[in-house]
Write a structure and sequence with these properties.
Blueprint lengths: L1 E4 L5 E5 L12 H12 L4 E2 L9 E3 H6 L6 E4 L4 E6 L3 E6 L5 E6 L1 H6 L1 H7 L6 E4 L15 H7 L4 E2 L2 E2 L1 H12 L2 E5 L4 H4 L14 E7 L5
């Protein structure tokens, strides 16, 4: 389990690992207890992730579980994303509003990161969680030409770099990376990896606003 605080305290982040178990299958009460203990969060909100560019507010997610791939909120509730190769991203603005984003290649191409950042205020910073990297992400699908057109620098031979694609998006929208985990989910062994055989299991990345806003 890994904790990260944004440098100015605007947001707090928690990332679970393989040793913490499958957080998708875990009972809701266990997930809630986890974020309460490690993030001092009042609740955990999640979405039914569908590889889209849909952004859902914490208030909407609290009413009922909704489909989408980015959650935006403010305050002591933890916003979460479940992944096993896609990129889990935490965005936070200078006012303490937070977004958690699920970004695989489909989401990046659809503009989920831009859509989430648009729902935040100024001076947005980012934490980038563990995901599959170019060392292991062989990609030969028919979608490749479209991805190469949008992200010309994202392919190294037959291997896809989600980092390169994400870096281009951040540069275009003016988001600064202030933290992350420089590990590949497939070859590090510390996290679940869909391509590494973890077809159903997922690890959790969760975040809430910093203490001064809670």
């Amino acid at each position: 389990m890994i904790r990260f605080s944004f440098p100015d305290g605007r947001a707090e982040v928690l990332v679970t690992g393989r040793e913490d178990g499958d957080l998708r299958a875990a009972p809701r009460a266990d997930r809630e207890s986890l974020v309460e203990r490690h993030l001092a969060a009042t609740e955990l909100l999640l979405l039914e992730q569908v590889h889209s560019s849909t952004v859902v507010s914490a208030e909407e997610a609290r009413e009922q579980r909704r489909q989408g791939d980015a959650l935006v909120g403010f305050g002591p509730a933890a916003l979460g994303v479940l992944t096993a190769d896609c990129v889990p991203i935490v965005l936070a603005d200078r006012g303490g509003a937070v977004a958690t984003v699920h970004a695989g290649w489909r989401g990046l191409a659809a503009g989920v990161v831009e859509a989430a950042a648009d729902r935040l205020g100024s001076e947005v910073e980012a934490f980038v969680g563990p995901h599959i990297r170019a060392c292991c992400y062989e990609f030969r699908g028919p979608e490749r030409p479209g991805l190469e057109q949008r992200f010309p620098e994202c392919f190294h031979g037959d291997y896809l770099s989600l980092d390169a694609a994400l870096g281009r998006v951040f540069e275009e929208i003016g988001v600064t990376i202030v933290g992350g985990l420089d590990e590949c989910t497939m070859c590090s062994g510390r996290f679940f990896s869909y391509r590494g055989g973890s077809r159903a299991e997922r690890f959790l990345t969760a975040a809430r606003s910093g203490d001064r806003w809670c």
